[in-house]
Amino acid sequence: MLAGIDCEVIDLRVLRPLDDDTILESVHKTHRLVVIDEAWRSGSLAAEVTARVVEGAFYDLDAPVARVCSAEVPVPYAKHLEQAALPQVPKIVAAVQNLFGDRQ
Fold first, then answer.
1. Neighbours of 64 (CB within 10 A)
2. Best CA proximity match to 102, nearest among 68, 76, 63
3. Which residues of the chain have pLDDT under 50?
4. 14 exposure class (CB count in 10 Å sphere: 0-12, 13-18, 19+)
5. DSSP annotation string for 47-80
6. pLDDT of res. 104
7. Helix (H) and strand (E) counts in the chain
8. Rounded to 5 degrees, what are φ and ψ at 78?
9. For residues 66 and 46, what is the distance between their CA atoms, to the nearest angstrom?
10. N or C: which end of the chain has fewer CB within 10 A?
11. In this predicted structure, what is the pLDDT of residue 3?
């Protein structure tokens, strides 16, 4: 639980075929979606998951889908720069909290 927010986490272990049913069931239950992807935001799996949710569960969403993706730069070799480019916990927490607005 995150500051009064109960989250459901889905680990998509297989990307082809994508488990649409599990994703859509979660959106039907939670009415929100945050997609975390280590790829770039443009043309990513996060974009595909978002598109499928909008096609299959648009009216179940109580907030826009949030995507937390890597910075659109080549992944750096230096560890500290790599960590800065990849999605990190503070960005994920901020994205989740943002879906709930001023309810906190």
1. 12
2. 63
3. 1, 104
4. exposed
5. HHHHHHHHHHHGGG-SS--EEEEE-SSPPPSSHH
6. 47
7. 4, 2
8. -65, 130
9. 9
10. N
11. 62
